[in-house]
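Entry type: protein chain
Record version: 2
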Amino acid sequence: MDEQGRSAKRRGGERGALVDSPTRVAPLTSERNPPPYGAQHGQDALWEGGNGALPPRWRQYEIVDGNTYYHDDNLVMGSLNQPLPGVRLDEPGDLVVSGYEWHISPLGRSYFVNHNTRTTSWQKPTPERPAGSLTPECVMEGHSKCIWSLACVGTSYNIVSASGDGSIRQWKRYGEPVGKPWGSDGRAVGSMALSPDGTMIVSGSSDGGVQLWNIMEGKTARDPWEGHNAAVKYLDWSPNACEIASGSQDGTIRRWNPDTGRQITPPIETGHGWVEAVKYSPEGDKFASGGTDKMIRVWSKDGKLLIETKGHDDWVLSLCWFKDGAHMFSGSLDHTIRKWQSIDGNLKELFVLRGHTNAIQSICLSPDERHLFSASRDCTIRVWDLKTNQQVGEPLLHEDELYALVISPDGGYIASGGLDKKIYLWSIEAVLKKSGDQARSVAKVEEHAILTGDVF
């Protein structure tokens, strides 16, 4: 999650801090059409401040290893390249649809070059849904910006969603809103976690605030907790509900007493750069973290570093423990999911799941631990059979990049959300049935080929 609507300058020494970003300004004038195909060459920027300033509604951050990260708030997209006319902003493979490039116009508006049709467009390319692909049982609409986090509430199976529009909303299982949206004073809500007893929600905001909510009342339980000085990227409750861990772009993990809102221990300086994921083990005796330094670290309950390992080739964005507390999965910006086992004070990589074509933002296990579900910025959810370590069936499709995924406590359905501002509800039974039907269909084709001698 990236910050929305904040002052664009902080102390440059803070990890994950905004650095030397100019005051946001409105475009000098409107543009009806993007630059034509073939006009992607270096030229002077015409926005206020020219080449020495950022385009309107862009920000820049200093991240790990001294790199600078540039972010377009309009599209919720980031680049390691400075946004200037003629500079390609995406890396090959970043965009979901092949044959496209991301550029910026002289007046500071992002646009996309389609080499397949030799045209340009303001619209970001998104995949088309193939005929016959599985559709969600329900689509929930109401948010006006990206959905960053989802939770499923106990036996009611209600869905709670947190968004960049500054609201938290609750929905009945089949789409009906429950009460009014919960407000956060306009601050983007980028992370959220449900208490073990299902009565409270804790949320993290773009300004570093942490807020506790009463689900039944839809109101804050107490004043915001302050400590982080950058966006809160991830939150998790301990299994005994006695503490909450928050990970932030300021590079720290902080642990809070939910009854008092006070920090239990001094902040943990993780070394991650941005902390992208924090997860308590099922026993609550340790917790794991991942971030922009590509490392996974495991910490003791008192905050001591137990294990650190590097296996991914890019940022670690999501983590998920097995019930035994000795195995975990991690998802990364390198497009892979990896399974790990904790042995003799080390994390041993067991295998790698490949199939996604962009960052894996969220992963979760089925209650019986037979399947893993993953949501990616490639606009898909994929289901993995953990007996065979193979993908089950075809990917489930959204209209834009995915950031949030949650499974119901009974394992009956998953809910997903992201940049298309919609929550999709999927029946796991329908997903597995369709994949079984597809497998049987393939088997019949192969059997027919063998019987007729028409072997490939």
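Comment: The longest strand covers residues 346-354.
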